[in-house]
Amino acid sequence: MTAGTPDMAARPAGQLPGATLPPAPAREVTAASDPGVPTGGFAAFVRAFRQSKAGLLGVGIVLGAIAFSFLGPLFYHTDQVHVNLNAISQPPSARHLLGTNAVGNDVLGQLMLGGQSSIEIGLAAALLASILGTVWGAVAGYAGGWLDAVMMRVVDSMIAIPHLLMILLLTSIFGPSTPVLILVIAIVSWLATARLVRGDALSLVTRDFVHAARAAGAAPGWVVRRHIIPNVIGIIVVQTTFEVANAILLLAGLSFLGLGPQPPAANWGGMLSNGLNFVFDGYWWLIYPAGAAIVLTVCAFNMIGDALRDTFEVRLRRR
Length: 319
Prior knowledge:
With 319 residues, the protein is an all-alpha fold. It has helices at residues 42-49, 53-75, 107-143, 145-160, 163-174, 178-204, 208-215, 220-228, 233-256, 268-275, 288-318.
């Protein structure tokens, strides 16, 4: 082989002289190979959420409260309807693990039933408030102009009214039934969601994809459903979690004032109110279990909300 002659052994078989080698295939960059690449999807969100120990603790407490309230009565049977004069205000024992109340009902069984109403009303009121607040805020932010001004003045006016006063007025008029409680708690809870969603909607209407949808002749309702609401889902999820905690606290306050679900229905706020009548008699089992249940559940939902907010913020910064 002479100098200047290309090395034939280095050329693949069948390749003509002067032909260039095809470029090597690009290495696919994945989340596993490059931690700096943002990943999408529910699995990636769960991985990010699992990094929060407080959030996981909150999820564990909430799941425990749900299992305790809804599965507990299936294994721990008690009579919460009839009065048992032979078991009035008994301390905790092997037969009554948390003692009995002033009418002889088992406190542990009442705590389970009270958890059902507290969690159900809290979740239902928060969900209804989130739906109403999301629609109101998205429409106001997308429409802008005079319609946005009028809609947000309505929100500001309702925020100026003390929530507890409004709830007391509505429950006194319509009665403290479960549907009424869900509705009145939702009425005072959707305002914060509306303001948050409206703030993000104002920035979204300036984005190119919204301008393109408008230029293509898309209806306003379609743009709101397709582009505005899906892009504020993070705010909605986080705020809904906080609203559940607020709804449980509002229900406990109403029940403490005697405007919660009426007997024989039970709830944690009503149990706490009844137990305070015996605070100086040493009947601690009538006060602490219900109070601890309220505090733990509310704190758990707040921890979940904080963890969700941090997770969404981290994912947005990576993008």
